[in-house]
Amino acid sequence: DAGVIQSPRHEVTEMGQEVTLRCKPISGHDYLFWYRQTMMRGLELLIYFNNNVPIDDSGMPEDRFSAKMPNASFSTLKIQPSEPRDSAVYFCASSLGGGGVAGELFFGEGSRLTVL
Amino acid sequence: AQSVTQLGSHVSVSEGALVLLRCNYSSSVPPYLFWYVQYPNQGLQLLLKYTTGATLVKGINGFEAEFKKSETSFHLTKPSAHMSDAAEYFCAVSPRGQKVTFGIGTKLQVIP
Predict the structure, then answer these.
(1) What is the longest distance spanned by two Cα atoms in chain A?
(2) Which of B43, B97, B105 sits opposite A109 (nearest CB)?
(3) In terms of DSSP bridges, do strands A111-115 and B56-58 run parallel, antiparallel, or are they unpaired?
(4) Contact yes or no for A95/A101 (Cβ under 8 A)
(5) Which of A36, A105, A109 to mutate to test the interface with B (most CBs of B within 10 A)?
(6) How far apart are CA B96 and CA A40, in angstroms?
(7) Are A45 and B99 in contact (CB < 8 Å)?
(8) Which of B99, B101, B102, B107 to mutate to test the interface with A (most CBs of A within 10 A)?
(9) Which segments of chain B are extended strands (E)?
């Protein structure tokens, strides 16, 4: 079975450019999460969706970040404009509900973003 | 609000020795507790979880953890370390029905 698929795996861009990260969750999962991982702050939850609807975006650092989930099989995380401090590994994860957001999370392999 | 404290960002053990990774949590309601493992250049994967019932939980690859409510702890153990256990381990807490909060992670080094 296919797991969570993220693209691109690596992205190097210059400050000020727009970055779009993509995620395909596991089929049938009704929750989707975006996390950011850095050495200094560890794993931070940015936003999560339930049945394609954003539920909690309190972790989104600022207005430069936006996320969408147009359908059950696709989500994007966009940064515009990007800054060097956005450099991190961004993970997408999905889970099957039945107990809210406490279920097992299935992670993609991550997108490593470097902003020069 | 909930939080997780992992004691020791780096732990080194000899191959064959006991692995003990410490995790303490705070939660205003009975929590679900998790341990995840991350191998280099990969996403996190679930090792084990505690939701209800038996407080000693067994996971994959010979790992286990015990939920101790009185100590607010959920330490991860493995009797004998293998080289393949070298990875980063994350403890996580989720007050029932709420979002998951991860600890900062502990990197485990296994020395031949």
Answers:
(1) 42
(2) B43
(3) unpaired
(4) yes
(5) A105
(6) 28
(7) yes
(8) B99
(9) 3-7, 10-14, 19-26, 31-38, 44-50, 56-58, 64-68, 73-78, 87-95, 101-102, 106-111
- Interval A34-56: pLDDT, tens: 999 998 888 999 999 999 999 99
- Name the closest residue on chain B to residue A106, using Cα atoms: B45
Q: How many residues does chain B have?
A: 112
Confidence class for position B18, pLDDT limits 50, 70, 90: very high
Q: Is A48 on the interface with B (CB under 8 A)?
A: yes
Give the integer Cα–Cα distance in Å for B46 and B100.
13
Residue B54 DSSP label = -
Angle at A103 between CA B2 and CA A78, to 5 degrees: 80
Report residue A78's pLDDT band, with 50, 70 and 90 as the boundaries.
very high
B60, exposed or middle or buried, with CB in 10 Å at 0-12, 13-18, 19+? exposed
d(CA A75, CA A77): 7
Q: Name residues whose C-beta falls within 8 Å of residue A79's C-beta, 6 or more positions apart in sequence.
A: A18, A19, A64, A65, A86, A113
Distance, CA of A79 to chain centre: 11
